[in-house]
Amino acid sequence: VWIENMNTVLDDNKKLCLTSGEIIPLAPSNRMMFEVEDLAVASPATVSRCGMIFVEPGYLLPESRINPGPGNKPHETPLVKSWLQKLPAPLEKASEPLVKLIDHFLHDGLELVRLKLRMPVAAVQPNQVAGLLRMLDACLLPFLPQSGDAVLPPEQVEQAAKRLATVLEPTTLTAVFAYALTWSLGAVIDGDSRPAFDEWIRAAGGPHPMT
């Protein structure tokens, strides 16, 4: 198993010993971090060389069976909450409608993909949530005024303001969210499952129903 080959790197001498006999030393400043789904193939020798931080995936997800109860809506879970807190100042007005959209769609969408649709390659739910947030970044950031907009001619500054005002409209923001949801949660399912996902997202309603 590949992780066993890393044991010599994880030792204090930080030397990678290859099966060919070659030894590759790492610099003293080098650090290694592994993000794994479980430790099923890790031996005690490997575990003892690492500092472990265990996070139960359920605690990163909304309304989970592991962490039930009030105050655990999708926008209050760690991944979404930290993303909302880092929204650029020009997008602060979008925070409230985004919270409504996330609370309305995220949990049901995750459960639909997990229970009723098929994923060719399994994707853990925290990664699906992170994918949604990255897609929202990719969709929203182009509408922000660029760093040099302050020195642009007045007409171009006005155009940048209009672009931003457009994306902040509830109907436009809903369309952007639908696109991001489709290419994050919807991207992990196979072709046969996509009609069911499309039907769900159209019928889900929400603050501004999608058509």
The tally of beta strands, per DSSP, is 2
Shape: extended
Radius of gyration, rounded?
Answer: 22 Å
Number of continuous helical runs? 8
Name a few traits of the molecule.
3% strand; 211 residues; 8 helices; two-stranded antiparallel ribbon; mainly alpha
Description:
There is one protein chain. By secondary structure, the chain is mostly helical. 43% of the residues lie in helices and 3% in strands. It contains 8 helices and 2 strands; from the N terminus they run H-E-E-H-H-H-H-H-H-H. The chain has a two-stranded antiparallel ribbon. A hairpin with a 5-residue loop joins strand 1 and strand 2. Helix 4 packs parallel to helix 7. About 2% of the residues have low confidence.
List the helices and strands and how they pair.
Elements: H1 7-10, E1 15-17, E2 23-25, H2 44-47, H3 78-85, H4 95-115, H5 125-140, H6 154-168, H7 170-182, H8 194-203
Antiparallel strand pairs: 1-2
Helix pairs in contact: 4-7, 5-7
In short:
With 211 residues, the chain is mainly alpha-helical. 43% of the residues lie in helices and 3% in strands. It has eight helices and two strands.
